[in-house]
Amino acid sequence: MFSISPQPVRLYNTLTRQKELFQPLNPPHVGIYNCGPTVYKDIHIGNLRTFTMTDWLRRMLEYNGYDVFLVRNITDVGHLHQDDDAERAGEDKLEHEARTTGRSAYEIANYYTEQYMHDLEELNILPPHLNPKATDHIPEMLTMTGHLVAQGLAYVKDGNVYYDVSNFPSYGALSGNTIEQLRTGAGGRVSLEAAEDKDAPEDFALWKHGAADRQMNWDSPWGSGFPGWHIECSAMATKYLGEQFDIHTGAVDLIFPHHEDEIAQSQGVSGKQPVQYWMHGEFLDFGNSKMSRSVGNVLLLRDLKARGIDPLALRYLLLTAHYRSKLNFTDESIAGAQNALNNFRADIAELAAVAKAQPDAIHGTSLSEAGRKVQEAFHTAINDDLDLPVALSLARELARNHKIEPAERYHLLLDFDRVFGLRLAHVEPKAAKAVSEEALALVRQRDEARAAKRWKESDQLRDQLKALGFEVRDTPKGTELG
Fold first, then answer.
1. 26 within 8 A of 68, measured Cβ to Cβ
2. Which residues constitute the domain of residue 275?
3. For a tag on the chain, would you pick the N or C end, based on fewer CB atoms within 10 A?
4. How far apart, in whole angstroms, are the C-alpha atoms of residue 386 and residue 324?
C-alpha cells in the first residue's frame, strides 16, 4: 500500500442539488445507510448497480483513510405494491408472493436473502457491517410511530397509522414534490399510497392494520398489523447510526416517496436533520427503459453467467459510466466490457510476472515521479464525486505506460483496485514461454532492422515471431516477447 497525500472529497448531495465538500460528523468515522433489497424475488442487475455504487463510495472513503461503518437493511415485510395491477396494488410484496406461490413468507424472504448475498459476493461487493432485517426491528418501529402520534405528526384510523404530511413544513425538500404539487399533479407522475381512510392523499402509512389471513402480523397499540416500508429504514438507521449520520444512498427511484418520507419520520421524532449527504444512483436501462419487473425487462446475474459472462465484467461495465448517469445495458456493451476486462487482465498478468521476478523492485511505499503523478490523478478522480470512468481510464493507460517500470505499474494497479474491486490481485502471472535461440536471433535481427528504419523487414520478422507463437511488443528498450 502506497502512502497518499490528503485530498478533499466532494460528493453530489441530492438534498442541496450540488457537489459539496465532504465533512463527516465525527471524523475519521463515517456512517452510511444503504437501502437494501426487498427479498421477494431475485435481485436483478439494475438493483446491483445501486449496491455497487455504494460499494465504490465505501471503498473510496476507506482509500482516503476514513473508518466506514455501512448498514444495509433487508426489507422482508411492509413494502407495498404500487402497481396498476389492481390484484397487487397496495399488497405487501412478500405476502403477495406467498399467496400466489403457496410458500411461507418467511421461507421466501430467507431464500431470496441468501441469493442476494451470493450475488453480492460474485460481484465483489464488500459485505456491509450490518444487515438488519425489518422483521427483527418491529419494537423500534412501534416506538418511533408512537412518538410521531404523541407529537401530533401522525393520526390513527381504524388500526392504521398515517403520517400527517401537512404538519411537516419542509416536506418535499429532497425531491421537490411539495404538498401543493402533489395535490395538483404539478410534480409529475409520482407514487402515492392508495387508501380511502387517509385525511389526505399525500399522507403515508406508518402502521397498517393486518387482515387475519396475513402471515406477518404483530401486536401494536393500534391493533394487529405490520409496519409501513418507510418507517423500517428510519427505525433501523436511527438505531445503528444515530439520530444524525453522514451518508444515505439508494437509487433515484427512492428519492420519492421513500427517502422523502424517511426524512419526515426521523426528523419528526428527533427534531434534527437526519442525513448530511443524500446520494442516489441512476438506473441501468435495458432496451432504453428502466430495468424493472413491472416492465418485464430484468436480467439476473446468473443469466449473464449462463451466457459465459464473468460477473466482474458487469462490474467493469458499471465502472465505465458515472453513477449519476444512466447506462444502457446491451449485448454489445456487456460483450465489450468482457473483452476489455480480459485485455486488462492480460496486461496485469504480464506485469505480475515481472513483479514476481523482481520482488525488490518496489521499496516500501516509494514511487517514481511519473508513478506519483498517476496516483495523484487517480486520487483526484475518485474524490471528485466518484469519477470512476476517469479513474479507470487512468488505470488502463498506466498498464501500458512504458515510462514506468513494470513492477511499479503492477503495484500501483493493485493499489487502485482497492477502489475498483476487480480482484486484480488474483490474476495469475502468465507462465513464461521458453524462448528458443531461433526466436532470440529473430529479435536481434528485428531490432537491427528497426534501428536502420527497414520497416518492411521489421514487419516480416514480427510475422515470423508471431508464427512461433509469440506476442510481439515494441518498447523503448526494443522488441519484447509475450
1. no
2. 10-281
3. N
4. 10
DSSP label at 137?
-
Model confidence pTM above 0.85: yes
183 & 125 share domain: yes
Asked if 419 and 386 touch (Cβ cutoff 8 Å), the reply is no
Q: Largest Cα–Cα distance in the chain?
A: 93
Mean pLDDT across the chain, nearest whole number? 91
Q: Is residue 295 part of a domain?
A: no
CA separation (Å) from 306 to 281, 301, 341?
Answer: 27, 9, 18
The CA-based dihedral angle spanning residues 112, 121, 377, 25, taken in that order and rounded to the nearest 10 degrees: 60
Give the number of domains in the chain.
3
DSSP state of 465: H
β 160-163/154-157 pair status:
antiparallel
The answer to whether residue 261 sits within a structural domain is yes
3-state secondary structure 40-64: CCCCEHHHHHHHHHHHHHHHHHHHC
Of 257, 281, 305, at which residue does a domain stop? 281
**How many whole angstroms from its chain centre is CA 274?**
22
What's the pLDDT band for 187 if we cut at 50, 70, 90? low
Are residues 447 and 414 both part of a single domain? no
Question: Residues 457-478: pLDDT tens digits?
Answer: 988 988 888 887 787 888 877 8
- The residue length of the chain stands at 482
Question: Do the Cβ atoms of 110 and 98 come closer than 8 Å?
Answer: no
102 contacts 41 by C-beta, under 8 angstroms: no
Question: For residue 96, what is the domain's CATH number?
Answer: 3.40.50.620
Question: Each residue of 364-396: pLDDT tens digit?
Answer: 568 999 999 999 999 999 999 999 999 999 999
> Do 47 and 191 sit in the same domain of this protein?
yes
Q: How far is CA 147 from CA 128, 161, 170, 408, in A?
A: 29, 12, 19, 58
- Based on the domain organization, do 246 and 319 belong to the same domain? no
Q: How confident is the model at residue 180 (pLDDT cuts 50, 70, 90)?
A: confident
Asked whether the predicted pLDDT for residue 133 surpasses 90, the reply is yes
Is 252 found in the same domain as 352? no
Of the two residues 179 and 132, the one the predictor is more confident about is 132
Residues 49-68, mean pLDDT to the nearest whole number: 98
Interacting residues of 145 by C-beta distance below 8 A, sequence separation 6+: 154, 161, 206, 207, 220, 227, 231
List, in sequence order, every residue forming a beta bridge with 251; answer none if it has no partner. Answer: 281
What is residue 191's predicted lDDT score, i.e. its pLDDT? 63
